[in-house]
Amino acid sequence: MNARGLGPVAAKFGLGWVGSALTGHERRQGMLVIPYMRPAGGENAVATIRFRCIADECVKDENGEFYAPTRKEDHSRHKKWFGKYWGLPGDVPRLYNTPALVTASPYVVLTEGEFDAQVWDMADVPATGYQGTDAWRDHFIPPYLGYERVFIIADGDEAGIKAAEARAAQIPKSTVVSLKDGLDSNSFFHIHGRDALRGVIGL
């Protein structure tokens, strides 16, 4: 997590690692675990979990170094089974970091991806994430209707901007913010830092 600049929030978001997989889950061995926490907490605090591939051969270059923030990871070796992420069998798409939606704030950020939402939290900005364009659902819209401003962060490429604009067409008082140069929130934070990230939404 430190390689992605997320070490300081790993404990807060309950990030873990599959060190010993249960029977039937062997292909998740060695994957990162991302819990989806409910705002209320308690014994039913975790709504679901997702797994993310962090295998060296997928996330490191030929010199054994983590890929630079601007370089895409290579998960082609296991694409026929799962992509970069893997959910629980039968799970449905969900919003990530919904506790941010009960934080007293006139604005909120919406990102594509869990790590990007975590980075905004590191910048002291309430942020939620969704699991990708195909995972967006219309029932995600109502939680954003009471804000003075919803900042929809577009990854800095054509696909990212198109996805963000589609969300903005559905959410009133929303603004699409493009990070440009092929960067997402995580890579932007990694390169430019906390204050620069806050600056893109005028803070």
Give an overview in words.
The protein has five helices and eight strands; from the N terminus they run E-E-E-H-E-E-H-E-E-H-E-H-H. The chain is of the alpha/beta class and 203 residues long. It folds into two domains: 86 residues, no CATH class; 102 residues, Dna Topoisomerase Vi A Subunit, Chain: A, domain 2 (3-Layer(aba) Sandwich). The strands form two sheets. The protein has a four-stranded antiparallel beta sheet with strand order 1-2-3-4, with no helix packed on it. The protein is globular.
- Tell me the Rg in angstroms: 17 Å
CATH class of the largest domain: Alpha Beta
Q: How much beta, percentage-wise?
A: 15-25%
Please work out how many helical segments DSSP would assign: 5
What is the number of strand segments? 8
The class by helix and strand makeup works out as alpha/beta
The proportion of residues forming helix, as a percent range, comes to: 10-25%
Biggest sheet: strands, sense, closure? Answer: 4 strands, antiparallel
Cα shape: globular
Provide the succession of SSEs. Answer: EEEHEEHEEHEHH
Mean pLDDT: 86
Predict the CATH topology of the largest domain.
Dna Topoisomerase Vi A Subunit, Chain: A, domain 2
Chain-wise SSE layout:
Blueprint: E1 16-17, E2 32-37, E3 46-52, H1 56-59, E4 85-87, E5 107-112, H2 114-122, E6 127-130, E7 149-154, H3 158-168, E8 174-178, H4 185-192, H5 194-199
